[in-house]
Amino acid sequence: MLSRNAIATASLSTIVCSGAAVADEGFKSSKFLTYAADAQKSYIGTAAVAATTIASLNSEPQAKCLGGWVTQYGDGGYQPVIDAMRKYPDDHPMGLILAVLQKACGPFKYK
């Protein structure tokens, strides 16, 4: 189960680090879930690969975990993320993606 703290932290990180169109507070998972499955998969996959790339510069074990996660869930459309979006439809999609990835592979906190 995703903690609200993890979701809030990931959402805040998204708003600070993303472009205005993607970080728009009005962009909710409920809207994202109306997109075509291929568009959803592309968006989630891009975010997961970006997270893997960042992890590869900071934590090899986390990068391997994230790479494995992408491989495991990519063909199925990243179902853990879609499930989280259905559960938290008012949250930003990117925040939920990061929360799911952190739950699976640990926090994105580096020294």
Provide structural commentary.
- The protein has 111 residues and is an all-alpha fold.
- Helix content is 71%, strand content 0%.
- It has one domain.
- It contains seven helices and no strands.
- The termini are far apart.
Helices and strands, with pairings:
Blueprint: H1 4-17, H2 20-23, H3 29-32, H4 37-56, H5 60-74, H6 79-87, H7 93-105
Task: Give a brief rundown of this model.
The chain has 111 residues and is mainly α. The protein has 7 helices and no strands.
Keywords summarizing the entry:
globular; 7 helices; mainly alpha; 111 residues
End-to-end gap: 27 Å
Largest sheet: none
Quote the average pLDDT.
86
Shape: globular
Secondary structure tally, helices: 7
Helix content: over 70%
Supply Rg. 13 Å
Domain tally: 1
Strand content: under 5%
Category by helix and strand content: mainly alpha
**Unreliable runs:** 4-9, 14-21
Instruction: Tell me how many strands there are.
Output: 0
Pattern of helices and strands: HHHHHHH
